[in-house]
Amino acid sequence: MVRSLLLVGVGFMGGSLTLALRKRGFGGEILGVDLSQEAIAKGIERGAIDRGWTSLEEVDDWDVDMVVIATPVRTFRRIGEDLKGFVRKDTVVTDLGSVKGRLVEDLERILGKTFVGGHPIAGTEKSGVQNSNPDLFEGKKVIITPTGRTDREAVEKVRGMWEETGAVVEFMDAHLHDWVFGAVSHLPHAVAFALIDAIIEMSGEFDLFRYPGAGFKDFTRIAASDPVMWRDIFLENRENTLRAIDIYISSLKKLRGLIKEEKIDQLTAFLEEVKDRRMNLE
Amino acid sequence: MVRSLLLVGVGFMGGSLTLALRKRGFGGEILGVDLSQEAIAKGIERGAIDRGWTSLEEVDDWDVDMVVIATPVRTFRRIGEDLKGFVRKDTVVTDLGSVKGRLVEDLERILGKTFVGGHPIAGTEKSGVQNSNPDLFEGKKVIITPTGRTDREAVEKVRGMWEETGAVVEFMDAHLHDWVFGAVSHLPHAVAFALIDAIIEMSGEFDLFRYPGAGFKDFTRIAASDPVMWRDIFLENRENTLRAIDIYISSLKKLRGLIKEEKIDQLTAFLEEVKDRRMNLE
After folding, report:
1. In total, how many domains does chain B have?
2. ipTM greater than 0.90
3. How far out from the chain centre does Cα B121 lie?
4. Where are the beta strands (DSSP E) in chain B?
5. Domain hosting residue A199, numbered range
6. B158 and B195 both lie in a single domain
7. Which of B122, B101, B113, B129 is nearest to B34 (CA)?
8. Is the pTM of this model over 0.90?
9. A171 min Cα distance to partner chain B (Å)
10. Whose CB among A91, A264, B85, B139 lies 3.0–4.6 Å from A87's, allowing a Cys bridge?
């Protein structure tokens, strides 16, 4: 059982996690570290943390059972190095990052066998601890990526924490994770960001954003996601994202070709297959 | 005032229009024609039409004030030719098609000055008259595309009909319409269809559709739209759609390049601009 927790990065995702634990009866102390004093103040106001500081150096109580890293993924290695000097030997360190792969390897090298990679498949385009939602993880998948060296007890503590929030835990290899989420999450975000960019390009003298019709808002909502978080995800999962974008461009060119050549039957078949696959998700 | 109406194509959009008119007190008779006997039965059951037939030839009462064409856009010219032999000289003919441009020119040539092009900017991925929604157009834009030759009284009748449903009418040149909606509607649909196709391509031995995380469902909902309707839209608005896809591919390649070259500052700026533009829509 985890009795105390340190959240590094007091934002929407981390705040949703600690609020979820509180709601389910977690009684231990929740500490927070964030570069922004405002985030700490809002985190305390929202009830997501009890106390907080703007740097790890200032934390006055390192007798914590669990550290949760909830910052943009490119900061993880440095935070890992910093944490190494402070945490107890048996403190479990986990994260909420959308990229695992090499990052998990590096953090394991830095922090040892008590590091457990995690990725909750939840979230919205919202950011900021003030928007945190204690029910965010209810029924959602959380991917945990232990390696052959990860401490089993540490894994069970992370699993237990997530099950407390109502999430469904699934184990996956860290590199497979990056391929899968490169395809189903990082690619769709790239696609949505590029769509808004294209509409900006096409707007010129006529403001196309005045006509956000039927589906456009839903479709582009994820383009309002946090820029720094997504910059880090794209760079950290660079190879998988680039590969997915290339395959995507091929699909788009295939569709383009069917329209250009007016291949009525093949175009219908293409759209029917896509509809069938999408309908199966509901 | 319109006292009687013939709906050609008894589906989600047409049914939503007639249900909206009924809800606001339209007391006249609503006739329906659809190739599918099942659609007619469902339309009567749903209250969207009073009586219906599977062909225009069977309609037993042509004393209708308004004909609304609500079929896939590539059928409009043939339906226009068929209607010509039946409608009164002063019957107004309008449509719900997502493409206007040359289609409006052709229908005006076929039907004369009482044809008024229309396009309600509403709808979902749903289809079928059984899913029709009388509140679909409430507060939504409807684009009307009269030409220099369109009868003013016909335009006012169409405008009046839409205002009855709670929609906000806006006039636009038919060709400008196709450029605008090629960008903000037809392009996003192409982008979403291609995304599902790419995920199918990438699935191979590992079923990626098992991980429809954070935003994926919202983002791809429009990919479940009616295939025949969208095939027709893409083919009918072919040039604008192809041009928009090309500009889109440029945007995606720009983003791809920033990730590939790890241009941290430019990538952040790209994502920030996109987020700002998207946020302005809310």
Report:
1. 2
2. yes
3. 7
4. 5-8, 30-33, 51-53, 66-69, 92-95, 115-116, 118-120, 141-144, 168-171
5. 176-279
6. no
7. B129
8. yes
9. 13
10. A91
